[in-house]
Amino acid sequence: METLDAVVIGAGQAGLSAAYHLQRRGITNAVVLDAEDGPGGAWRHRWDSLTMATVNGIRELPGMPVVEAADSEPSNIAVPAYFADFEDRFGIEVRRPVRVTLVEDDPSWVAPDGEAPDGEAADGGVLGRPLLVHSVGGDGERLPVLRTRAVLNATGTWTRPFRPAYPGAASFRGRQLHTADYVSADEFTGQRVAVIGGGISALGHLQEIAEVGETFWYTRRQPDFQDRPFTEEEGREAVAGVWERVRAGLPVRSVVSATGLSWTPALREAQRRGILERRPMFTEITPEGVIEADGTLRELDVLLWATGFRHELRHLRPLALHSDQGGIVIDGTAASVDPRIHLLGYGPSASTIGANRAGRAAVNRLVKDLCPALDRER
Ligand code: FAD
């Protein structure tokens, strides 16, 4: 069985940052696995109209100049090309398409004599205990199991679109889709479309679809718009708020949900045209549409759920990382209950800048935890 010091799962911004820092710290007995067919992480799947001008700001990968692309270039082309250059430049070999299905303790492992039994050591006795990583290839065929001392998990959120349960949802006769399925507004020409959600994606969908169809915007509460771009200080405060929830073991919220939204000229124009008239959340979905808060039946052709994503962590279930409150407590990037597992791009690091930092922090901690001899040499 292939035995490694670290397995990086996911080759988006977070996984590539980790791979870069592993290389720099001389941890070469490591592999990067990614479920995609090619470079780019989740950026490969963003919709065409999310261009380099309309993204929220993409930070460069470590050691690379920032993405150079025309404003009009779709981010689903520019960013994957940039990631491909990065992998080439630093010789980062990503095994793909490889989807990790399960990470578990190695059941065959026997603690060496004299080692502290589980629960007595500061790390709960887990650090020396190997993990097994199970995965499948592009055709779903099982791949050889890997054994590793640590997992740097960087699997993002794109594969876990979140859609809240609403009474009557299954009865709706029109089309329902999530941001993750959105391709372009052209599909909605002449249609009555409900956009549900109060984040940046919802605003983008509304502006585009209003050009070709009739839109209705539903959110649970009035989004918090601010008149100027966010300052670095406000960004730090938002991240600190996300950290508070993580430390308390609560389910994480996105950093954007903590910062709120800033007016842009395009949003002001949308507001002037009445596109951003928010309606309170409907109470029920019917075959024809939705029952609005005041009891009116709104007939609709499409329900577009821009209701966010959850972290893709299903393959880590056997390790029981979640607290009773439903979140995972992390210390830096390491799961507090199991410091062999690092979560990158998770909670406070779920942005391109956060992902960069998490990759570096995870590798620093890994060197400390697993390779004290290696650390002394540097
Ligand atoms: P991803 O880019 O999602 O990469 C995760 C990788 O892991 C993927 O390649 C995936 O295939 C792979 N993977 C998943 N599960 C498995 C598995 N089981 N086995 C193997 N591989 C697996 N942030 C910004 O800073 N600026 C922005 O403008 C911005 N815009 C955004 C727009 C949208 C619509 C969304 C959803 C997010 C946006 N973000 C933005 C957030 C940002 O994209 C991410 O937080 C950031 O890119 C970090 O990416 P990542 O590496 O964590 O994940």
TrEMBL record:
GO terms for molecular function: flavin adenine dinucleotide binding; monooxygenase activity. The keyword 4Fe-4S does not apply. It comes from the Bacteria. Signal peptide: none annotated. InterPro entries: Auxin_biosynth/cation_transpt, FAD-dep_OxRdtase, FAD/NAD-bd_sf, FAD/NAD-binding_dom. Residues 148-345 form the FAD/NAD(P)-binding domain. Keywords: Oxidoreductase. It holds the Pfam family Pyr_redox_2. Residues 5-45 form the FAD dependent oxidoreductase domain. This is Cation diffusion facilitator CzcD-associated flavoprotein CzcO.
